[in-house]
Amino acid sequence: MARNTSNRQEPRSRDPERTKGEILEAALSEFAANGYGGARIQAIAQRAGCNPRLIYHYFGSKDDLYLAALRSIYAELRSRENELNLEASSPCDAVLKLAEFTFDFFSSNPAFVSITRSENLLDGRFVHQLPEISELSNPLIRKLDGVLKRGARAGEIRPGIDAMQLYVSMVALSAHHINAMHTLSATFGTDLSSTDWRKARRTHVVELIAAAVAHRES
Amino acid sequence: MARNTSNRQEPRSRDPERTKGEILEAALSEFAANGYGGARIQAIAQRAGCNPRLIYHYFGSKDDLYLAALRSIYAELRSRENELNLEASSPCDAVLKLAEFTFDFFSSNPAFVSITRSENLLDGRFVHQLPEISELSNPLIRKLDGVLKRGARAGEIRPGIDAMQLYVSMVALSAHHINAMHTLSATFGTDLSSTDWRKARRTHVVELIAAAVAHRES
Amino acid sequence: MARNTSNRQEPRSRDPERTKGEILEAALSEFAANGYGGARIQAIAQRAGCNPRLIYHYFGSKDDLYLAALRSIYAELRSRENELNLEASSPCDAVLKLAEFTFDFFSSNPAFVSITRSENLLDGRFVHQLPEISELSNPLIRKLDGVLKRGARAGEIRPGIDAMQLYVSMVALSAHHINAMHTLSATFGTDLSSTDWRKARRTHVVELIAAAVAHRES
Amino acid sequence: MARNTSNRQEPRSRDPERTKGEILEAALSEFAANGYGGARIQAIAQRAGCNPRLIYHYFGSKDDLYLAALRSIYAELRSRENELNLEASSPCDAVLKLAEFTFDFFSSNPAFVSITRSENLLDGRFVHQLPEISELSNPLIRKLDGVLKRGARAGEIRPGIDAMQLYVSMVALSAHHINAMHTLSATFGTDLSSTDWRKARRTHVVELIAAAVAHRES
DNA sequence: TATGAATGAGCCTTCATTCAT
DNA sequence: CATGAATGAAGGCTCATTCAT
Q1: Host domain of residue B202
Q2: Do B174 and B102 touch, CB atoms closer than 8 A?
C-alpha cells in the first residue's frame, strides 16, 4: 500500500545546463538523421530522455532549436580551424595540412555534413539567419591566400591559384563522397562508407591536391 | 432536366500519355525543390494542372512516383554519357572531355543534384530499389580506366591513378558547390550561383584535374 | 463471419451541400455555447456527425468557419428585417412594431446574442472583416428616421428623437437581459430565463418605448 | 569568489499585501481584456511583474483568482451604490439620479462590463459561486420600488412600473452599447466609443427614462 | 517568500490516401 | 478517364499546474 519513491521514474536531473546540453545533442542527432522537416520534436525528446514540453521551455520552437544546432556545428568547425597553424609550415606542407584537416573533419563529423545537407535542401533558410557564420571562413581564406602567394614566390607552388576555389575544392573532395554516399554507392555498386575505401579516398585526395598545386617545369 | 456533358468543365486532355508525362515533370520539380518529405502530392497535382487523385491512378503512391522521378533523372544521365566517345581522343583530351562533360551536366541539371541530395538524406532508401542504376556507371569507369592505363603507357598520364576515385573527384568538384550552394554562399559571403563564379569554377576544376593527372618529370 | 455492411457506421451522406450545412449549424451551436476561443473543432465535428478533417475540407480553418457562422447569423437578421413593412403603418404603430420585432428576434435567436457577445470579447476582430455587415442596418435606420419625422409632423411622436439612438435602445432593452442573463439572475436572485419573466419583460419594454416616443402635452 | 546576495536580482517587494494587490489588479486587466478562457496566467504574472508561481501561492488556481476578481468588481459596485441617497430626493429626481449614476458607472468601469460579459459566456459558472452577490441589489430594488410607489401616489410617476424591470432597463440602456460596442460599431459604421457619441447617448438615455416614468394626462 | 524546472493533456492543423460517382 | 467527398494518423505547439530548491 505504501507508495515508495523508487516506483516512479527518475524525474530528470534538475540540472538545467546539462538538460539543455542533452537536448541539443539529441537535436543534432535527429536533425542529422532526418533533416529539418523529417525531424520529430518528440523523437528529440526521447533521445534526450525528457519531456517534449521541455524543449519548448529551453529553445522556444523547432526553428530555434534547429538554429541552435546549426550554430553549434559551425562553432565546432571554427574552434577546430583555429587550432591550425598554417603560417608555421612551408607553403606546400601548409596546403597539405589544410587538405588533411578538412578531409578528417568531415570524416569525423558526419552530423556537420548531414545538417548542412538539410540546410541546402531548405535553400539555406536558416543559415542566412546566422550572420556570425559569414565571418567564420574569411580568415581561413586569407591565410590560405597568403600561403599560396608565399609558395608562388618561392617557386614551390604554381602561381595564379585562387584561394577560395582551392578551398571549395578541398571541401568538395572531402565531403561529397559522404554527402552523396548512398547514391554513389548504389551507382558504383561499392560501399563508400567502408574503412578501406575511405582510407584510399584520403590518399587520393591528398595526392590530387598536392599535384594540383605543385609547380611544374614545362 | 437532361444533364448534358457540355455542362461540366473540360475534363483535361484525354491524352493519358501526355498527362502522365506532365505529372512526372511536375513531380520532378516538386521533389527537386522540396525533397521527398517536403514534397506535397497536392502541389504536384497543381503543377501538373490535374487532380491529386489522378496521380494515384497513374503512379499508385507517392513512393512509386518518387521512384519514377529517380529513374527518370538517371536515365537522362545515362543517355548523355552514352554520347561521349572517350576512345576517340588522346588520353589527356579524353580525361578533360569527361571532366568538362561532368561539370556541365550538373550545371545544367540542377534537378539531378537536388533529388540526389534528397535521396541521400533518406539514406538511399529508394535508390537501393533501382538495381538498374548500378549498371549505369560501370561501363564508364571501365572506359576511364582504359584511358588512364593507355595514357600511363604513353607517358602522358601519371601512373597509378584509380579510375573510380578520379571519377568521384570529378563529380565532387562539379557538384558540391551546387549541392551546398547556400551554406557555402553564407559561409563565404559570396554568391556561388552567379554566372561569373560558375565560369571561374569551371576553369579551376578543369585545370585542377589536368594538373592532377599530368605526368610530371621527377 | 460475414462482415455485413450494417456493421460499419454510416459513412455520411455524400451530399456535400447538406454536409456543409450541418457543419455550419453545428458550428453555430458550438460557437454560441463556448465562444470563439472556447469552441472546439472536434466538438463541432461531433455535433455535425462528421470527421474533423472535413471541416477543413469545406471551410479551411477555424477562423473561416467562425466567419461563416458570423455571416450566417447576420444574414438571418437581415432577411427578417426585410420582411418588416414600417411604411405601411401609422408612425406609432411602426415604432412599436419594430420594438416588438426586435425583442422577439433576440428572444428566438439566442445564438445571435451569444456569438455577438463572443465577437465583442474579441474586440470585433472578425466582424470588422465582413464589410457587408455595415450595409445591413443603414436602410433600417433610414426608415426609422422617416417614421419618426412623419410622426413628429403628425403630432403623434415627440420631435427630436435620434433614430439610431432609439434603435440602439430597442436592441439594448431587448438583448441585454439575454446577454447578461446569468449575472443579472445571480444579482437579483431571480431566474431571468423563465417564460413568465420574459413575458413581463416584453410588456415592460414595449410600454417603455411607447411612453418614450409618445408626444406629451406639457 | 564568494557569491554574495547583492549579486542576485532584487526578489520583489517583500510586501505580501502589496504583491497580492498588484496581482489582483493585473488579473482584472487581463480577464477584462481577454475573458476567462483567453486570459493567460503568465500574462497576468507579467502585468504584475512577478513569477507565475506566485499567483498560485497567493490565489491557489486560475479559478480562484478569477473569483477574486469577480468579487472585487462587485464590491466596487456595491460600495458606489451605497453612496446614493435616493430617499432624499423627489421621486422623479431620484429616478433620474439612479439612471445617471448607472450610466456613469458603466462608462467609467469598462472592466465591470468586460468581466461580466465573460462571466455570461461561461453561463455564470463563477458568479453562482458567490452568494454574497445576490444580496447586493435587493436593497437597491427595494429602495427604487419605494421611490416609484411614492411618486405614483404623488401623481409624479406613472403607476404600475415594476422596479426590477425598470432597473434592468437602466442597466441595459447604460451597458449594452459598451458591451456590444464592436458589433454595433461595425453594423452602423459609426464609432460608438467616441466621446461625442457617448455624450449624446447619455442625454438620450436619461430623456428616455424620464419620459418612460413620467405621469401622462390621458 | 519566491523561483526555475518539469509535466500531461489537449488543440489546430496537415497529409497521404481511399470511397463513390 | 477523371473527380470531389471523406478519413485516420500524426505533428507542432500552448496552457495550467506541480516539484524541488
Answers
A1: 74-213
A2: yes
Q: What is the CATH number of the domain that holds A162?
A: 1.10.357.10
Residue D46 CB neighbour total at 10 angstroms = 14
Contact of C46 with C84, CB cutoff 8 Å: no
Provide CB contacts within 8 A for A27, sequence distance 6+. Answer: A39, A44, A48, A65, A66, A68, A69
In a domain, B5, yes or no: no
Rounded CA-CA distance D59/D192 in Å is 37
Cβ distance C184 to D171 less than 8 Å, yes or no, reads: yes
Residues of chain C with pLDDT under 70: 1-14, 217-218
At B185, the amino acid letter reads S
Of B127, B137, B182, the CB nearest to A182: B127
Residues A114 and A203 in one domain: yes
Instruction: Please give residues of chain D from 38 to 57 whose alpha-adjacent beta carbon (CB) lies under 7 Å from any atom of strand E.
Output: 50-54, 57
What is the C-alpha to C-alpha distance for residues D208 and D204, in angstroms, rounded to an integer?
Answer: 6
If asked whether residues C21 and C127 sit together in one domain, one would say no
Overall average pLDDT of the D186-201 stretch = 96
C-alpha cell at B106: 550538373
Domain assignment present for residue B144? The answer is yes
- Does residue D87 sit in helix, strand or coil? helix
Number of structural domains found in chain B = 2
Strand E proximity: list residues 43-102 of C with CB under 7 Å: 52-53, 56, 61-63
CB neighbours of residue D141 within 10 Å: 19
Cell numbers standing for residue B182: 547556400
**CA atoms of A177 and C73, how far apart (whole Å):** 64
Distance CA C43, CA C47 (A): 6
pLDDT given for residue B4 in this prediction: 38
Coarse DSSP helix, strand, coil percentages of chain A, rounded to the nearest 5 percent = 75, 0, 25
Q: How far is CA C54 from CA B41, C19, C27, C37, in A?
A: 18, 9, 13, 20
pLDDT, one tens digit per residue, over D134-192 is 877 788 999 999 999 999 999 999 999 999 999 999 999 999 999 999 999 999 999 99
Q: How far: C52 CA to F19 C1' (Å)? A: 37
Query: Could you give the CA distance from residue C83 to residue C78 in angstroms, rounded to a whole number?
Result: 9
Q: Which of residues 142-201 of C touch D (CB under 8 A)?
A: 158, 162, 164-166, 168-169, 171-173, 175-177, 179-190, 200-201
Task: State chain D's mean pLDDT as an integer.
Answer: 90
- Give the three-class secondary structure for A81: helix
